[in-house]
Write a structure and sequence with these properties.
Layout (H helix, E strand, L loop, with lengths): L17 H4 L5 H4 L5 H4 L9 H5 L7 H9 E5 L7 E3 L4 E7 L16 E11 L6 E7 L3 E7 L8 E7 L21 E2 L16 E8 L5 E12 L5
Parallel strand pairs: 7-8
Antiparallel strand pairs: 1-10, 2-10, 3-9, 4-7, 4-10, 5-6, 5-9
Length: about 230
């Protein structure tokens, strides 16, 4: 009655527990192979410091050359926005005084090589407006003279000293308000060559119409004459 034959341990053999105890069944959870995407540094190559620290993509060669000539954006002026009265004029003044040439010190000359002026003006009939930039040494330079008819606004309109594929607004047949493009000024900026960037600049808008408007914003970018080697 107590013979172990009927209770043979064969059915309870470890073979039946293989699914629970054998690490092979748990390979998906325990084997580092399954965790390669999480633990292997290879999978983290995209986050590796090499992508952040490698200076190759951030070569300073071009930046150093630019730093020798390019000056930081000047403006917009503190007085903007400025109301433009009907049948009147308005001026906005930008005082530039803190630019230091590359390798120089405070008070050194800041001779201009080239500039660009970006202008935003709200007005319902921009054909009534004449935009003029003034530099105390270079004098008055007309940017745009009564262009645009009854079109609305100048919106981030850029006037540059030189351009291979653009012209003045008046000479650009496809140009239309709000002039979100790049143009040559009607008088050019050639008279500014060699004059100091550090100066008091003035943008004046003369309004020949019966509608009021606003000088919303304007600023200057450009390059100084590079220092002598």
């Amino acid at each position: 009655g107590d013979d172990d034959t009927g209770d043979d341990d064969t059915g309870d053999d470890d073979t039946g527990d293989a699914a629970d105890d054998d690490d092979t069944g748990d390979a998906g959870d325990d084997d580092d192979t399954g965790d390669t995407g999480d633990d292997d540094d290879t999978g983290d190559a995209g986050d590796d410091d090499a992508g952040d620290d490698d200076d190759t993509g951030d070569d300073d060669t071009g930046d150093d050359d630019d730093d020798d000539a390019t000056f930081p954006q000047q403006g917009p002026p503190d007085d903007a926005p400025v109301a433009i009265p009907a049948s009147g004029s308005a001026s906005s003044t930008l005082v530039v005084e803190d630019v230091v040439p590359a390798g120089g010190s405070d008070g050194d000359p800041t001779p201009l090589q080239s500039i660009s002026v970006t202008v935003s003006i709200t007005h319902p009939n921009v054909g009534d407006l004449t935009l003029t930039l003034n530099h105390p040494g270079g004098g008055d330079m007309v940017l745009s003279d009564q262009n645009g008819g009854d079109g609305d606004n100048y919106t981030s309109t850029v006037f540059v000293q030189t351009c291979d594929d653009c012209d003045t607004i008046a000479q650009t047949s496809a140009a239309a308000p709000p002039y979100t493009d790049t143009f040559l000024p009607e008088d050019g900026f050639g008279s500014l060559g060699g004059f100091d960037l550090n100066a008091t600049w003035t943008l004046t808008v003369v309004n020949a119409g019966s509608e009021a408007g606003t000088i919303d914003s304007w600023y200057i970018d450009g390059e100084l004459t590079p220092p002598s080697p």
